[in-house]
Amino acid sequence: MKNRIGIFTGFALGMLLAFLGIAIVSHLHPEEDFAGITIFTLLLSGLLLSVIGSILQSFINKKKIQN
C-alpha cells in the first residue's frame, strides 16, 4: 500500500480539481447540461494526475535509495 500512495493521491487530487473546474463552469453557464462530460472529465483528470503521482513517487523513491 505504501508504494501506491502517489497514485491514490494523484487520482484524488485530479478528481477534486476536475470537480472544482466543472462547478465553476456550471455556475458560469447554468443553462448547459454537463452530465455526460462530467464523468469523463473526472476520470480523465484523475487518471492523468495518478500517472503524474506515480512518476513523482518513483522519482522520490530513487532519490532515497541513492542517498
Summarize the structure.
The protein is mostly helical.
Q: What's the total count of β strands?
A: 0
SS summary, helix count: 2
Our measurement of the CA-to-CA distance between the termini, rounded to an integer number of angstroms, reads 23 Å
State the order of secondary-structure elements, H for helix, E for strand: HH
Radius of gyration, in Å, reads: 16 Å
**Range of strand content:** under 5%
Fraction of residues in helices?
over 70%
Q: Indicate the low-confidence ranges by residue numbers.
A: none
Content-based structural category = mainly alpha
Count of individual domains: 1
- Main β-sheet, in a few words? none
Give the overall shape, derived from the CA principal axes.
Answer: rod-shaped
Mean pLDDT: 76
How is this fold's topology laid out?
Elements (H helix, E strand, L loop, with lengths): L4 H24 L6 H32 L1
Helix pairs in contact: 1-2
